[in-house]
Amino acid sequence: MKLRVASRESRLAVIQSQQVMETLARLHPELELELVTMKTTGDRILDRTLDQIGGKGLFVRELDEALRSGRAELSVHSCKDLPMEEPADLPLLAFSCREDPRDALVLPRGVQTLDLTRPVGCASLRRTLQFQVLYPDARVEPVRGNVLTRLRKLDEGQFSALILAVAGLRRLGLEERISRIFTPEEMLPAAGQGILAVQGRMDLDPACLAGLDDPDGRDCALAERAFVRTLDGGCSAPTAAYAQVEGDTLTIRGLYADTDGRLCRGSASGPRQDGAALAVDLARKLKEDAHVR
Question: In degrees to the nearest 10, what's the CA dihedral of 76, 274, 227, 199?
Answer without folding.
Answer: 10
